[in-house]
User: What shape does this take?
Amino acid sequence: MRSTEELLKLRAKHVPKGVFNILPIFVSKAEGAIISDVEDRQYIDFAGGIGVENVGHCARRVVEAVQQQAQKYMHPCFHVTMYAPYIDLAQKLNEVTPGRFPKMTMFANSGAEAVENAIKIARYYTKRPAVIAFENAFHGRTLLGMALTSKVKPYKWGFGPVAPEVYRIPFAYCYRCSYGRTYPACDLRCAEALNDFFVNQVSGDQVAALIVEPVQGEGGFIVPPRKYFKRVKEICDANGIVFIMDEIQSGMGRTGYLFASEYFGVEPDLILTAKSLAAGMPLSAVTGKAEIMDAPHVGGLGGTYGGNPLACAAALAVFDLLQEEHLIEKGKKLGQKVRRAFEQLKEKYEIIGAVRGLGPMLGLELVKDRETREPAAEEARKIVQIAFENRLILLSCGNFGNVIRTLMPLSIEDDQLERGLAVLDDAFSRVRRTG
Ligand SMILES: Cc1ncc(COP(=O)(O)O)c(C=O)c1O
Assistant: This one.
């Protein structure tokens, strides 16, 4: 096998630096929550391919489903000759997503593409131009995706002009409330601000869609108050605005629910899935009210690879696995364990300003001072680095880069979890010592 050094040299020569890498290793094998590299080092994986491996790396059932599908046909293209796995998966998503109304589903390849399609569909249906997105939002790296995404560097900087008719409002980020209020005394001022937006920015009847992550992912694992989305949805309904939940990171059991929308008791008009939907096969979906989904004309939606048979077969196996292995339940318990451990870390380390998340989608927001809440981004970077040196793969996030997040497979074994959490604890203690 070629060495890391050799591959790094080739990578530097042949692949542009813009295509980022968080860690300087090359994988040789991945199984469950363990990644092995070409030097035969083993790592505990708290990143899961950025939230893609909720069922674990190379879950046997998924691998077999892909292998069996590959022996039959790989790509007739749904737009040329149809195939059953596309229909079966659409039906499954229509059944399991929140909302007791007739639904339809279309497939694409990446999260960003699902976002793009959802906005196309909402604009077509409403015949309106404007889209509302949030501060701290992340919706992908395509032209429209980056316009909807909040953080400027590295996502938008130098790549403009970004798509027009995208408007941004503050999110319910209680730890750093844009209105300086405290929940619940605030009476959800941030949701009510939407009505001010219609007065001051764009009239409600010009807005096609509002797109939002139920738990913001890249933006810092931010969970709004439970009643927040019901109020936002009411305001959208009152103005004929399509309410789109981007569950690309939060979906497929990540939050202790199949979809985080369930926790908030909200039924989105359109719901977006990708990442853990197909456990590593490139697949994304837009699922939603049949009336909205079915609005665009024939030929207006699609793409060569959307709903590729291998990816659909993988996703169908993922749904089987979630059910048979009780992974949602396991995820809830995992979330409780990690939260307990994180609360203990918070008691030990002043640098942890907040522990937050839903189920096992948990984050630690690091601050230089608990009073001023100045973001501690450099410290977060060091913790990721020290964890890596001790064989734990960890990710940070947040618009200020100061949040440590966990996206480990829901199937992670207890001793792997314990070992990973011990490495994290050790990393915090070292950052404290080195200052
Ligand atoms: C909430 C959310 N939306 C959209 C995307 C974009 O997905 P992709 O990278 O597959 O285009 C991501 C990716 O991290 C995401 O977390």
User: Anything to note?
Assistant: The mean pLDDT is 97.
